[in-house]
Amino acid sequence: MTTGQQTTLKFRQKRRPLETTMHIVWFICAISSIIGIFFILIFLLYDAAPAFLDIGLIPFLTGERWDPTSIMPKYGLVPLIVGTLLVTMGAMVFAVPFGIACAIFIAELASPRMRNILKPAVELLAGIPSVVYGFFGLAILVKFLQDLLSVPSGESVLAGSILLGIMSLPTIISVSEDAISSVPRYLKEGSLALGATHWQTISQVIVPAALSGITAAVILGIGRAVGETMAVIMVTGNAAIIPSPIWNILSPVRTLTGTLGIEMGEVAVGSLHYHALFGVAVILLLITLIINLTALTVMKRLKSSQTGGCSRTGVFSCLMITDRLSGIIPYLPIGVTAILGLFLLLIGLWQGAAGILILYLIARLVDRYCIRQTVQKIWFSLITIMMGIVTFILIFILYDIFSNGLPYVTLDFLTESPRNLGRGGGIFPAIIGTFYLVIGSILIALPLGIGAAIYLVEYTKENILTRFIRTATDLLNGTPSIVFGLFGFTFLVLFLGFGISLLAGMITLALMVLPTVIRTTEEALKSVPDSLREGSYALGATRWQTVRRVVLPPSVPGIITGAILSIGRAAGETAPIMFTAVVFMQRRLPDSFFDPVMALPYHLFILATNVPGARNNQYATAVILLILVIMIYGGAILIRNHYDKKIRW
């Protein structure tokens, strides 16, 4: 053996402990989702068991009345489940077609300059805190629907669906756009070279190839809609009734999450009512599991039936499956007709369903019998209009809040503590408390999420364990935010003895945003060509060296996208911290991790719902919360653009 060979052998032996160590570290990160779900289930079931035993599981699930404060308490979940399903389905009817259309516009139709404007704008929409959406819905949307439809109150299924649809849009757009942009260019170029129009290429080649990422985006959007608490409390009316008739979208309802948010803060710990609320949380988790497993099954079947041929026979096979996909693709006609059908539901269920069917048939006839260029112009016009609507929504929300709030943002407001229940004084402790919570949660979630994605993509093949980890991640993502709050309360605050504290809030928020980091990082790592990995291994690099020096650098923009979405969600969430970390009034800053804090989202929620005569401070607080989000997003976008330019050069 030569001296050079001996040196190489010794060098590789020295690298083995590091490789083994990194493998173990990434595996621990990967199973963090499983551990999180396990602890959530254990502690929620433990607290829900007395309710299931005393009330009975069947009466609990099938009871048609929820009234725990009456002389004869009633604990029936049917009205709460119906309210949750109606609002969520309505939100997806709006968000999915608009989200996919906007993603197509940004990835395929927009110029580079316009894309550099629209993508940050969509991310800004994601960063608007949920309580700000709820405040906007309460102040503007509810009154608008009340005047437009001449109803006694605008708080209804329709208001909740529109608001949750708007809130879900950024997640669907961002992740779908990343998936569409990652489709190999040779698929698009091959389709165009064979004579297909740009629209045919998008609808029959690009969208099917990106279907996995788009489905992941929809799952994330459903998770956002199902998990929202504070916004639905503010705009749905909170009446625990079943709409009559069931398709009456102008009826007030109460969701499962809204029930937890309204009642948990006032219930006596250990009472039957207390345990029944944990039973509600368990049912929420089961509904989430059903939604996610259904979505994963559909994604697997669609991917195998529509894009499986592409991986085996290349671009020409992709172009040959056009006829087989014609019954399913394009998705946009279905989405557009579903949106119009939603408005027809104002007339009645059957009229609305007939309207959806007729409009869809018209769309299919246009696709089949019109000139290809005419079809392309029609759908490109619709996509552009939908992108314009989303942009208008963003501009209108920002204009309303800033025009009404900026005049009351003064130096005293920024540097003083609140007085007179928030009607006077400032919000300095809430600003600092929000910074603490967001920074702490991201510092916990980002390393765990990136490590888990690295393990799933780079260190293991598809097997039972990876499928279990991904399922646990999806389940964790779809878990309603209020359930994280209940888990943090029962495990961190009570069981571990942290109390209502900054540390408990950080850990709770980190667990909540972890799935977003994992999913977006995983998609970013998958977009790196395998040829780069193989070239690195051929040159003698180890797996960790390949990941660190070859795979991670081009994945940084996608990873930062996940961080941006996580920051936006952490900064705007109220439900996870309302039972674990925050108080409404506090004049001093926390001295340790075990002190409670003020936070801007919770402060705004209390001002908007419980403090009359505080309109000026409501808008001013919303402005500061938005400025904080814009600053965070702006910094993250600058970092991502820097890496984009570096990678291109």
Automatic annotation (TrEMBL):
Membrane topology of this protein: Multi-pass membrane protein
GO MF terms held by the record: phosphate transmembrane transporter activity
Protein origin, superkingdom: Archaea
GO biological process, one term: phosphate ion transmembrane transport
Main location: membrane
One Gene Ontology cellular component annotation held by this UniProt entry: plasma membrane
Keywords of the record: Cell membrane, Membrane, Transmembrane, Transmembrane helix, Transport
Pfam family, one: BPD_transp_1
InterPro entries documented for this protein: MetI-like (IPR000515), MetI-like_sf (IPR035906), Phosphate_PstA (IPR005672), Phosphate_PstC (IPR011864)
Cellular localization per UniProt: Cell membrane
Gene3D superfamilies: MetI-like
TM spans (from-to): 21-46, 77-110, 122-145, 157-180, 201-222, 274-298, 338-366, 378-399, 427-455, 475-494, 500-518, 619-639
Domain ABC transmembrane type-1: 81-295, 431-636
Similarity remark: Belongs to the binding-protein-dependent transport system permease family. CysTW subfamily.
PANTHER family, per the entry: PHOSPHATE TRANSPORT SYSTEM PERMEASE PROTEIN PSTA-RELATED
Protein name per the record: Phosphate ABC transporter membrane protein 2, PhoT family
Taxonomic source organism: Methanospirillum hungatei JF-1 (strain ATCC 27890 / DSM 864 / NBRC 100397 / JF-1)
